[in-house]
Amino acid sequence: YKRVTVKTLVDMKARGEKISMLTAYDFTMAKIVDGAGVDVILVGDSASNVMAGYETTLPITLDQMIYHASSVVRAANRALIVVDLPFGSYQSDPKEALRSAIRIMKESRAHSVKLEGGKEIKESIKRILNAGIPVMGHLGLTPQSIYKFGTYTVRAKEEEEAKRLIADAKMLERIGCYAIVLEKIPAALAKEVAESVSIPIIGIGAGPDVDGQVLVLHDMLGMTHEFHPRFLRRYLNLYDDMTSAIGQYVDDVKKQDFPNEEEKY
Ligand code: KIV
Ligand code: NA
For the chain, where are the E strands, in sequence order? Predict the structure, then answer.
C-alpha cells in the first residue's frame, strides 16, 4: 500500500473524494482499521474515556498518548496517523506545545498532531508547523474545554460563535494546518466552513457536506453502549455479541465442556 500523506488528503478534497477517519489506540485494532482501508487513524485523547475509563479527556497524559500512538504506528502500513496533544501538554506556551509535539513525533513515530482550539493557540500551532510537523486543527465542540462549556451539546448555534468558528478555520488554513476536525456543529455551518477553505474538513456530528467523517472506533462498533448521540451510526453491536460469547465461555468452563478431547495435548 502507498502511505496516505497530508498531501494525499488535500488532493482528495480537490477531487471531491471523501476522507474516512477512525480512532484506534492499540496494535490489534489499528491493524484491522488500517487493513480495512481507513485513510486516517486518529490516536484520540478519547483514549482517556475508551481505554482508561475516565469521564473526560482531561486526565490522559502525554506519556500515555505516546504509548497508544506507538502501538498504532507499529500496526498501520497505509493510513496517515494523527495523534492528539493531550490537555495540559500545549496550553501553557508555544515552546511547551512544540516540545510535546516533538516528543510525540520522535517517541511514537506518528505522522502528525492535532490540537483543540483556534486563535488562542495560534502561536503554538505556528511553532509546531515551523518545526515541520503537520498539524490538524479541531474546532466546534472541543472536549478538553468541557468544564468551560458545561455540556457536550451542539456548538456554534449562535451567530457570534459561528462567525468566530469560520474565522478560526480560515486562520488555521492560512498558517498551514493540513486539515480541521469540526465536532458537533450545525450541518449548514460545517458546509459553509468546508466551502470557505481548501484544506479538508473532517466532521463528527457536522453533517454530510464536509470532506470526510470521523468516529470513535469503539462507538461505531457498538462496544460502548451508554453513549448514543444522534450522529453516531453503529455498524455492529459488539457489546452484546461479546457479552454473549464470553458468557458462553464461562458456561463451557463451568460445565467442563471446554477444553474437549481435540483441545488438549
Ligand atoms: O479524541 C477523539 O476521538 C477525537 C475525535 C472525536 C475527533 O478528537
Ligand atoms: Na480528541
Answer: 19-23, 40-43, 80-84, 112-114, 135-140, 179-183, 201-204, 212-215
Number of helices (H), then strands (E), belonging to the chain: the values are 11, 8
Binding region: 45-46, 84, 114, 116
Ligand 1 within 6 A of CB of 216: yes
Q: What is the pTM of this model?
A: 0.98
Q: Which CATH architecture has domain 6-234?
A: Alpha-Beta Barrel (3.20)
ipTM: 0.99
- Predicted pLDDT of residue 162: 98
Range(s) of the chain covered by CATH 3.20.20.60: 6-234
d(C-alpha 135, C-alpha 176), whole Å: 8
Tell me which of 183, 261, 262, 263 is the catalytic residue. 183
Neighbours of ion ligand 2 (CB under 5 A): 44-45, 84
Q: Write out pLDDT tens, residues 179-223.
A: 999 999 999 999 999 999 999 999 999 999 999 999 999 999 999
Would you call 183 a catalytic residue per the annotation? yes
